[in-house]
Design goal:
This protein is mainly beta. The protein has 2 domains: about 350 residues, Neuraminidase (6 Propeller); about 60 residues, no CATH class. The protein is built from 6 helices and 24 strands. The chain has a 4-stranded antiparallel β-sheet with strand order 1-24-23-22.
């Protein structure tokens, strides 16, 4: 569910201290308040995930998306409408079942206003037919969350084979068997491992990728036994088996944020995990966000700057270099919708450190009123809560529009063992926290305006 599960489960403690750049403009210390879902039952968990203005003349009125996890059953989508004080109303928005899809859970991650009266919110849902896999979804409510709703499924199917990071195996030429080597053997091995078929020596790095050995043969036989329609378990790979093993397919799609008629989010395929997308609100046009050298990438926030010009926020994983180097970096990048191009990419690590923090990720973005952005997200590393914590960051822009270095402030709900920064509006951060000895996840709001 979003990145919250990753942060809550992170348990590494780091002792390497990196150097921190001095903050040009110190950020204020926030005040924290719980932001409970009014319909929560005892022992259940509630998450607030996204926040945006309602579009009215009152800047204090907001939409907040969320997820409710009862003590039993699947998750439910939530939308809060009202003031930042928490005195507004909560509405459950759960995708209705259809004749061929029985919805088992709904999660909402990012709201936006449609004018001054309507709501648009994105997220995901699961069905009994797809079990644990997610479909992305966008909900349009022209008269607000209690009015008529239109649910549109967003599946990144078109990017599986056409996206910039698409899996593209070499064409089959001849039957593969033990003792052979080359690009086609590598493709089969990578695909088998991605599908969960073990080739221990390759995973451990003790044998060469691209050489068809006894363990590869055993993995091929295991795949053949699991797919008897493809023929007897011979341990050799003919044309039909090669196609079956190396053909990619969509696993899940999760929409995280929407603004200015576009949606960003993530999708996984059978053979490649951690891919990011931009799509429109009808799901008719898709673009894959990629970065050279990144193992995987996420897109969690989008802001509309001017016609056709957007800023996207998220994180990307790079291969680790030593135990103290960051492996996930936050990023900001500009996106031009007319040309479908990315520009101005800049990476960020919490505190502007180059060592000591293993995870920095932007989850939410909002203008700061001075041409730059306020951001929130999660980090794991030096000085953080053992299981991860949130942060509030400010990034200015130069006269040419380039992103400046960030100013940082930790976000730690008092006495919590984990805190996550999920979204930001003006100078207010929302997220979740967990207290010591508890498994209940609760929402909060932090005010940085003082």
């Amino acid at each position: 569910m979003k990145r919250i599960a990753m942060v809550v489960s992170a348990t590494a403690v780091f002792t390497v201290i990196g150097s921190t750049s001095a903050m040009a403009v110190p950020l204020p210390t926030p005040s924290y308040s719980p932001f409970p879902y009014s319909g929560a039952a005892a022992g259940s968990s509630s998450l607030v995930t996204g926040i945006r203005t309602t579009g009215t003349s009152d800047p204090d009125l907001v939409y907040i998306s969320g997820v409710y996890k009862p003590t039993t059953g699947g998750t439910q989508g939530l939308v809060y409408t009202g003031s930042l004080s928490g005195s507004g109303t909560w509405t459950a928005l759960n995708r209705p079942s259809t004749p061929n899809k029985t919805t088992t859970s709904t999660a909402l991650y990012g709201p936006d206003n449609i004018g001054s009266t309507g709501l648009r919110v994105v997220g995901s849902y699961k069905t009994s037919q797809t079990a644990k896999l997610d479909h992305g979804v966008i909900v349009d409510a022209p008269t607000g969350p209690t009015g008529t709703l239109t649910w549109t499924t967003l599946d990144a199917t078109s990017l599986v084979t056409t996206g910039a990071h698409a899996w593209k195996p070499p064409a089959f030429i001849t039957t593969l068997s033990q003792g052979m080597s080359g690009a086609r053997v590598r493709a089969v091995q990578k695909a088998l491992i991605a599908r969960g078929y073990s080739i221990p020596s390759i995973t451990a790095g003790t044998s060469t990728l691209g050489v068809f050995g006894t363990q590869t043969r055993a993995a091929v036989i295991a795949y053949q036994k699991a797919h008897p329609s493809l023929g007897a378990p011979t341990g050799t790979v003919g044309a039909g088996l090669y196609k079956s093993i190396t053909t990619d397919s969509l696993k899940n799609t999760i929409a995280h944020s929407t603004r200015g008629g576009l949606v960003v989010g993530n999708f996984d395929t059978t053979l490649i995990a951690g891919r990011a997308f931009v799509t429109n609100t009808t799901g008719s046009s898709w673009f894959e966000i990629t970065k050279a050298g990144a193992v995987s990438i996420t897109a969690y926030g989008i802001w509309y700057n001017s016609p056709g010009q957007y800023t996207i926020a998220g994180g990307y994983f790079s291969p680790p270099v030593g135990t103290a180097k960051p492996v996930e970096h936050a990023y900001l990048v500009n996106y031009a919708s007319a040309t479908r191009t990315l520009s101005g990419w800049r990476s960020y690590d919490y505190g502007n450190r180059t060592s000591g923090d293993l995870i920095t990720h932007f989850d939410g973005i909002t203008p700061d009123g001075n041409g730059g952005f306020n951001l929130t997200g999660d980090r794991v590393g030096v000085g953080a809560l053992t299981r991860g914590e949130g942060f509030f960051a400010n990034v200015g822009r130069t006269s040419s529009g380039a992103f400046k270095a960030a100013t940082w402030k930790p976000v730690k709900y008092p006495s919590s063992v984990v805190t996550s920064g999920n979204s930001v509006y003006q100078q207010s951060v929302i997220g979740i926290y967990v207290m010591s000895g508890s498994t209940v996840v609760s929402p909060y709001i932090a005010d940085f305006s003082r």
